[in-house]
Amino acid sequence: MTRHGAYHGTTFGAMAVDGNYHSTRNYIFQPDTFGRIAPAPEVGCGVEHVREIAALIERENPRTVSAIHLDPMNTAIRVAIPGDDFLPALRQMCDDYGIILIADEIITGFGRTGRMFACDHYGVVPDIMTLSKGLSSGYFPIGAAVVKGEIADAFTGSPEHTFRHGHTYSGHPVGCAIALENIRLIESEGLAAQAAESGAYLLEQLKGLAHHACFGGVRGKGMLIGLELVIDKETGQT
């Protein structure tokens, strides 16, 4: 299950879990296994939004939903930062239904939000986490999928249990070395804490633009900040 407006990449696999019709309308994905899309989140969404998702799961039959895939900070959906209770409630709901929770931290990971990962703000550990961008800070193209031990164990021990996936230069030793050094620098220089401090200052300064007619609001965590521009402040039309 993915979400309205979500963006997760431009390969066929990634676009199959996008919730943005405009980016996927020219493609037919086979098999079409991502027909159920959760509601688009609102800024500050919380437990009520999780109840909406649970109601959708019940309508569709919980046995047909294997995973929920989301960006914790909804960066493609107006940076709709969730309320503090949203992700913990979603984690609990996934546990109750036996659904895998996948966090796309490709944009939010490695300190951008003021914590190493966006999920850390809420004390939530996903079952699978996708990573890139900040993994090497752009010095080398590299990505990773990190999974819990019990999920990794399900794929070990037999070729029949393996999903074949990769690229020509997957696991490049230079890229891996760069990623390791990059992570070391992020941790040793306290870059996540610096992002939290600088981001809080920037957020406050941006609020000073509120007198402009096109200013619709600003929100964010750390250095992940969304500035909303509107045509009409009264209606919120963008």
Description:
The structure is a single chain. With 238 residues, the protein is of the alpha/beta class. It has two domains: 2-192, Type I PLP-dependent aspartate aminotransferase-like (Major domain) (Aspartate Aminotransferase, domain 2), CATH 3.40.640.10; 193-229, no CATH class. It has helices at 12-15, 21-24, 47-60, 86-97, 149-153, 173-188, 191-206; strands spanning 2-3, 37-38, 67-70, 100-104, 128-131, 144-147, 215-221, 224-229. Strands 3-4-5-6 form a four-stranded mixed β-sheet. Strands 1-2 form a two-stranded parallel ribbon. Strand 7 (215-221) and strand 8 form a beta hairpin. Helix 3 packs parallel to helix 4 (86-97). The longest helix has 16 residues, at 173-188. It is globular.
Features:
238 residues; alpha/beta; Aspartate Aminotransferase, domain 2; 2 domains; four-stranded mixed β-sheet; two-stranded parallel ribbon; 7 helices
Proportion of residues in helical segments? 25-40%
What do we call the CATH homologous superfamily of the largest domain? Type I PLP-dependent aspartate aminotransferase-like (Major domain)
Shape: globular
SS content category? alpha/beta
Give the rounded overall mean pLDDT.
90
Q: What is the number of beta strands?
A: 8
Distance between the termini: 27 Å
